[in-house]
Amino acid sequence: MSRPTVLLLHGPNLNLLGSREPEIYGTATLDDHVQTASASAEARGFDIAHVQSNHEGALIDAIHAARQNHAGIIINPGAFTHSSWAIHDALAAFDGPIIELHLSNPDAREPWRRTSVVSPVSTGSISGFGGDGYRLAVEAMATLLT
Ligand code: DQA
């Protein structure tokens, strides 16, 4: 039987990680984080499929495709976290576990970041641990999938 895959989804501006506000998001690049997640997943018996987009519709299309192709979703929606009811609805139509992931702790930042429209349709959230959050998210996903 083929190994399950988990969709790792990144929203807007996260392609700039490494050079974008490093005092908040660190100096590791998006590729570095994808490698961390992939290596952790490999050790736990599943694969990571990665998509990053700056466009809301492309993220929604990826979530729809995950309904057929992926056992779970780990999503850092970037600023769409705080506003996109369309991403909320797409995630609500996904049957498997969903982990909301943030590098920073949005609750400790500006007031407008304290609302997440993704949290209500997520199994759980991991925030504020920087790049270590990728390993933590994969570990949590592994538990949810067994
Ligand atoms: C973020 C937090 C969001 O508020 C912000 O818009 C981002 C990154 C994080 O990973 O900490 O783009 O999702």
Written account of the structure:
- The protein has about 150 residues and is of the alpha/beta class.
- It has a single domain (about 5-145), classed as Rossmann fold (3-Layer(aba) Sandwich), CATH 3.40.50.
- Helix content is about 35%, strand content about 20%.
- Helix 4 (about 85-90) links the parallel strand 3 and strand 4.
- The longest helix is centred in the N-terminal third of the chain and has 14 residues, at about 30-45.
- The protein binds 1,3,4-trihydroxy-5-OXO-cyclohexanecarboxylic acid.
- 1,3,4-trihydroxy-5-OXO-cyclohexanecarboxylic acid (DQA) binds next to loops.
- Mass-distribution shape: globular
Poorly predicted parts? none
Which CATH class?
Alpha Beta
Which hetero ligands occur in this complex? Answer: 1,3,4-trihydroxy-5-OXO-cyclohexanecarboxylic acid
Count of strand segments: 5
Annotated CATH homologous superfamily: Dehydroquinase, class II
Residues in helices, as a percent range: 25-40%
Cα-atom radius of gyration: 14 Å
Number of helices: 5
Any guess at the CATH architecture? 3-Layer(aba) Sandwich
The strand order across the widest sheet is 2-1-3-4-5
Q: Give the biggest beta sheet.
A: 5 strands, parallel
What is the CATH topology classification name? Rossmann fold
How many distinct domains?
Answer: 1
Relative strand content? 15-25%
If you average the pLDDT, what whole number results? 97
**What is the string of helix and strand elements?**
EHHEHEHEEH
Q: What structural class should be given to the helix and strand makeup? A: alpha/beta
Alpha carbon gap, first and last residue: 15 Å
